[in-house]
Design goal:
mainly alpha; 119 residues; single chain; 0% strand
Length: 119
């Protein structure tokens, strides 16, 4: 059953309030141990410039949609993605287009994905 957007917003605001009340700089320190995919999609769409994927469960780090959104919002999330995505051409390409330095987190085979074919 899909959660109402309002419920997701409330959960997100609770995190923001905890951050504020604890004088913390990192909102993600207060991510509840959610395995809820809908909440993570909501969270990732609002937290930019942060390695949010670092705080996700292994199951979520192995979810293509979650990894794709995370890498689109902040390329360095590739570091925390499941290994299968570190050699995935589409995911690595999304990250590298955002920031070429993240190629260091791709698998050994990934740079070959971007080598022009020799004729």
């Amino acid at each position: 059953m899909l959660k109402k957007k309002e419920d997701l917003r409330i959960q997100y605001n609770i995190m923001k309030n905890k951050k504020r009340n604890n004088n913390s700089e990192n909102l993600l320190d207060f991510v509840p141990n959610f395995t809820d995919k809908e909440f993570w999609i909501y969270l990732l769409s609002r937290v930019h410039g942060s390695c949010a994927l670092k705080y996700a469960t292994e199951e979520l780090k192995s979810d293509r949609e979650i990894v794709s959104i995370a890498v689109r919002n902040y390329a360095y999330n590739l570091e925390y993605a499941a290994d299968e995505f570190k050699s995935d051409h589409e995911i690595v390409l999304i990250a590298v287009k955002k920031n070429g330095y993240v190629l260091q987190y791709a698998s050994v085979e990934a740079p070959a994905l971007f080598t022009p074919a020799l004729f």
